[in-house]
Amino acid sequence: MGKSKKIILVGILLLLVIGAVGYLFNYNQEGFTGSRIKNPDFYLLDIERMNGTDLHTMELHEDDVLQIHMKTEKGSMYMEMKAPDGTAIYQGNGKEITEFTIKIPENGVYTIVAEANHAKGLIRIQRKEKME
Length: 132
Known about the structure:
Layout: H1 3-27, E1 31-39, E2 42-60, E3 65-82, E4 88-92, E5 99-103, E6 108-127
Antiparallel strand pairs: 1-2, 2-6, 3-4, 3-5, 3-6
């Protein structure tokens, strides 16, 4: 093989390596595409594509009931709801159980942590109206 062919081959390989590194770097960047709503009684992540973590807090009262819908369509998702003392009252991935309710054990500020890795899916948490 001639010297000029080796230089061209090395140049092409170098461009391929640079392109692959750039793609992988971009692919793993944190980001969110979709709809996000956060308010005192409602939290929604309608995810078209998400890499990273999203947080939301809700001030809740003992015996409040939250209706939760979580569904992972693509990639991986993980959600955790933490009580005011930091203990987890729910942890899940939206694959086995997708719709359920949680009864709040005590007054305080609860933290919702949503993590996603190349994910598409939905997380919806809504405080249910109390029947009196």
